[in-house]
Amino acid sequence: MSAQQALLTILEQKIRDDSLVLPTLPEIALKVRQSAEDPKISLAKMADVIAQDPALAARLMKVANSAFLGRAIKSNSLLQAVTRIGLSQIKHVATALALEQLFVSKYPVVQQQLDKLWRENIQVAAIATACLKLYQAEHPAAQFNADLMTLCGLVHNIGALAVIAEAERHPEVFGHPVFLHNITEKIAPFVSVKVLQAWGFGPEFQLAAKNWRLCQGGQPPDYTDFIRLAAIARGYYKSAEAEMQLLQYYLQQQLITVPQFSKQPQFAELYQDIRGLFT
Asked: Which of 31, 58, 203, 277 has the maximal Cβ count within 10 Å?
């Protein structure tokens, strides 16, 4: 049995046995999310929780002062940053910023794969959120949240992290990047849902992780559709005909206004603003 086939067999068996090791949220993200669920939490107390992780605190300051939140008066303290972001959104923003801590390996060849996966997740999150922000500008009554969209984009393929972690024990497969890509495509959707369930993420995250690869639009539109727009922009779908049909559907649903939506100047500015939060 080849190393590739052996890995596939191991992964499929562990999924059946429910024994695949799933990634866990960084500790600081768990603390922020748990604190956000406390109805008595204050802005000052939340700032104290975030201050336990200086790196996260610095990145939250960057977000609070970013073009993504507008170009108003700058925040000069962590408390001001938390106030500006808001308690209702801080758990999504903090989780998104802390996720990069998971994409780390002591093996250079594995780290290359994790870096690639993280870059792809950032790109999907930035494209999807830019599309959503443009949609919100035209449809202000639409019930969508940009911070949730960004986090949804970052975790839409989180199962791939577990697949790569298992593959790390079989370093010979990293010499076969096409195989690793194919096995991730096959298994990651199911594993992604398992991870998001374990993390306590809501149904909108789980639906996106499960269904974004399907080249068909939802009715009514949801967060998954904006991730599919990111997939179109990245040339993910193999069938040009199916992709064109999906694009026409999104034009009819007014999720986008032009077929070449990623070429619009407004899109490009939003995309760079969002992507800049993670670089």
From this structure: 277
